[in-house]
Fold:
Amino acid sequence: MTNAGVIGWPIAHSRSPLIHGYWLKAFGIAGTYTRVPVEPQDVERFLRSLAAEGFAGCNVTVPHKEAAFRIANEKHASAVAVGAANTLWLEGGRLHAANTDTYGFMTYLAARAPQWQRRDAPVAVLGAGGAARAIVHGFLEAGVAQVRVFNRSRARADDLAAHFGAKVRAFDWDQRNAHAADCCVLVNTTSVGMKGEGHLDIDATRLHASCVVADIVYVPLETELLRSARAAGLTTVDGLGMLLHQAVPGFERWFGKRPVVTDELYDLIAADVRAS
Ligand code: ATR
Structure:
C-alpha cells in the first residue's frame, strides 16, 4: 500500500485529496492520499521522517513551499527556478523536490488556448509572489520575448525581475492597464478576486483582441477578471485547471501511473468549489 498526502497549515480546505482520490479509484490502486496538518515549527521534523511516517511522498502547500525546497536533498530544476517546492518524493532514501505549478499552468494554458503565443508580444503577470515566479519561469521556458510584472509593492517586482534577468521587466501596479494593452497573455497570480479580496480593476476592453486572460484564483470559478474578459470577447483560462494539472506529476511519482485530467474530474472539483 502506497501512502501520500498534502501538508500545510491550515490544510482543512485542500482539494488535493478529492483529486488524488478520484485517480486512485479510477486506476483501482489500493493507496491513500490524506490531508496532514503540519505546523510551521514541525515541518522539518516531519519531512525528515516522511518514510517513518509511512509516506512515499507528499504535496506541499502554504506556508511550507520554501521550507520544503530548503530541506530537500535533491532539488529538481523546476523547483530551483522558483525557489519553492510543491511536490516531494523519496528515492533511494533521499528526499526529492520539484515544483509542478509551472507545468500545471503552462499545460492548462496550452490546452485551453493553444494559440496563446503571439510572435514577439510580451505577457503580463499580476503579482510577484511564489505563484508568479512559477508562471514567469514557464513563460521564459516557452520563449516569450518579454514578461512584464506588475506588483503592488514595486520592490518585490524588482526582486523577481532581478532573479530572472533581462527578459523580465518590473512595473508599478498602477501601470497595469496601460502596459498590458499589447500583451498576448495577462495572468493574475495575486489573491485579488477571491471572495472578499477586492478588485483588480483591469479594463479588459483595452486588451489586444487576441489576448488570453488567465487567473489562478479558482474560488469563485469565474472571477471578476475572467468575467469581464469573457464579456470583452477574449479567451479565458480559469484557475481550477492549473490546480488539476499540477497534481499529475506527483500522482505518477507516488503511484506509478500517469493520470489524466478528465472533464468528469473537472466537474467533480468544480461542484465542490461551488458548494463552498
Ligand atoms: P503566492 O505564493 O501564492 O504567490 P504570496 O507570495 O503571498 O502568495 O504573494 C501574493 C501576491 O498577491 C503578491 O504579489 C501580493 O502583492 P505584494 O507583494 O504587494 O504584497 C499580491 N496581493 C495580495 N493582496 C493584494 C491586493 N489587495 N492588491 C494587489 N496585490 C495584492
